From TrEMBL:
It comes from Anopheles atroparvus. This is Uncharacterized protein. It comes from the Eukaryota. The keyword Secreted applies. Keywords: Secreted. GO terms for molecular function: odorant binding. The keyword Secreted applies. Gene3D superfamilies: Pheromone/general odorant binding protein domain. InterPro entries: PBP/GOBP, PBP_GOBP_sf. Belongs to the PBP/GOBP family.
Length: 96
């Protein structure tokens, strides 16, 4: 499976420095992460809020805001993975 498709569907098993840097770039280009490696709370909650109730969207942000890795690329990957996994978990718990 193509790595971009894998990431989109929450398969984080394939991980190397290039993939980590890709997700860091994705997070910055999408506006979720600023150049100073802080996060855009409004955008993250707004994105999660497209799929979740407001409380669930806030949970996504709260659970992921402290994700910082040893490098900027690891930080981007960790945050992307956390947003994806927390949003899916919140969606499942509120719908089933």
């Amino acid at each position: 499976m193509d790595i971009v498709v894998s990431l989109k569907y929450g398969d984080f098993t394939e991980r190397d420095p290039m993939i980590e840097c890709f997700t860091e770039c994705l997070m910055k280009k999408s506006g979720f992460m600023y150049d100073d490696y802080t996060y855009n709370k409004t955008l993250i909650i707004g994105f999660a809020g497209r799929y979740l109730e407001p409380e669930g969207a806030q949970t996504v942000y709260d659970n992921c805001i402290d994700r910082f890795g040893q490098t900027v690329c690891v930080t981007g990957f960790e945050m992307y993975q956390c947003i994806h996994e927390t949003a899916v978990s919140e969606w499942v718990s509120s719908n089933f």
